[in-house]
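Problem: given the chain below (516 residues), write out its structure.
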Amino acid sequence: MVTSVVAGGAVLAYLYAAASTKDTARRQVSAVAAGVADAPTVAAAVEGPDPSRVLQPYAEQVRRDAGVAFVTIMSPTGIRYTHPDPRMIGRPFLGHIERARAGRAFTETFTGTLGPSVRRVAPVFDREHRVVALVSTGITVRILDRRVRDQLLALVLLALLALGVGGAGTYLVNARLRRHTHGMDATQLSRMYEYHHTILHTVREGLLLLDPRARVALANGAARELLRLPEDVEGRGVAELALPESLRDSLSSDGPCVDEIHLTREHVVVVNKSAVTSGTRDLGSVVTLRDHTELQALSGELDSVRGFAESLRSQTHEAANRLHTVVSLIELGRPEEAIQFATAELELTQRLTDQVVSAIAEPVLAALLLGKAAQANERGVELVVTPDTEIDDTAIPETLGSRDLVTILGNLLDNAVDAAVEAGGHSPRVFVTARVSGAELLLRVADTGGGVGPDSVEEIFERGWSTKEGARPSGRGLGLALVAQVAHRHGGRIVVGREVGAVFTVALPLAREATA
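Solution.
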């Protein structure tokens, strides 16, 4: 392209130079002819006895000074008075003179004794405005060609210089472009863009691209859905977005993030962030977001199942000990005491089972309470189901799934048992209430632990808050945050109080659709 532009420019410049040279020659010979024709010396000399003697030196002086090829002064009939070649004086002029004899000057290209030339023929008038002589000045085509060739050489040199500069610039631009595109051409870049765009918006993981100033350069659909980002998020700083404070701090920090768990109002999000560099330049960072809401709920259920399994194993061991005790009492001849020992343990277990099953028709909640009661008993804590607990099988709508109830009640019971054990005392207890009150489902868990201080009520539902030693955001301190998240998703509320220890009451509306 550069070569074509330079070549085209050179051709146009040559054509313009050629046309300009001819036009300049026409103006030059016209000016010289007019000047000679208007000179009084010429009009006076042609009326003398020997015009050539006076006019020949004059014409040659004008020719040399004006830089033209010839200055010919002739009679009205075309007989030369002057000529660059003195031998041609007295001979007829070769060319057209009719219009000049009629009093009109004109310009033409004609081949005369000096070869092809651009010439001007003008009339010479006397005082009565009669044509008494004719003047012809001209520049040969050979001189014009030499002038054009001189200009052409300069044009060629200029074109070669422009071509060299353009070629070098093209090479440098192309090399820089190749370096930035990793050697890919336009077709490959177009294909990579299509792949890039498709992948960004089809992966289920959220993806954020942040520039060095922590502004969002790109957010795919999954990231927008997970973080509830606005449509005009591109170009906005992370600090301007409605995100949890811990997540904003993590995204705005300079360091990397590896599997950090953050809670939004609807989701449990695992965040990874790594820097993007090109040589020594900081291009920003790439953030991936994974939705662990379902996984966290499943993990809670798995923990419950594992707890149930441990309880069953422990109860099997205890049952074997009790069976050996009963057998030994029988062998010792004390059957009444054996019966009393066996029925006492059976009545205690059966009483709790009957109470839970009769009060709670929801099988998942009933199983959860029985399992947690066994776990609490192993740790020396009595789980008490209050008499006002009652939930029938039609009270809980489908929108309020059993998984969310397990998340809420399971985490509250685990925290309550831990608090009761840490507080110690003669008889640590945990009290559970689950009932329908009007249009709400109330889940109430109280313990005999140390309780929650008034200054900590606002903080206990944040990720990473815990009273346990060595609490970590990625480990402990997540239970109450999950409880708050589930309650918010279903439009519920949480009330924190204190009796002997802490009291947590979660109220969930039964007629509200869960938020996305």
